[in-house]
Amino acid sequence: MLIKKLTNKIIEKFIVEINEPCNMNKLKTGLLNPLINYTYQRLFPYFLATTIVFLLTFILALLIFLLLLRQTMKNN
């Protein structure tokens, strides 16, 4: 019971300190921004490859549709 109260008080003080603007800015500039930038740099090639594959698939489907449409127009 005593440990639980002590733990709760420590957690509450930690949250209060984190929520102060000075500490929040330190967390943003020192931890979050570098983490987000690193993640973006690592994942960008995969996003780019996925986009290219999607666009090529869309273009291929469009070309197949146009070829089928043209073929049905010739048969009629």
Walk me through this protein's architecture.
With 76 residues, the chain is mainly α. Helix content is 95%, strand content 0%. It is elongated. The termini are far apart.
How does the overall form come out from the CA principal axes? elongated
- How much of the sequence lies in strands comes to under 5%
H/E element string?
HH
Distance between the termini: 86 Å
- Helical fraction equals over 70%
Rg from alpha-carbon coordinates: 28 Å
Mean pLDDT: 95
Domain module tally = 1
Query: Helical region count?
Result: 2
Q: Which class do the helix and strand fractions yield?
A: mainly alpha
Q: Largest beta sheet, briefly?
A: none
* Low-confidence regions: none
Q: What is the β-strand count?
A: 0
Helices and strands in order, then pairings?
Blueprint: H1 2-18, H2 21-75
Brief characterization of the structure:
Helices cover 95% and strands 0% of the residues.
Structural key phrases:
about 80 residues; mainly alpha; 2 helices
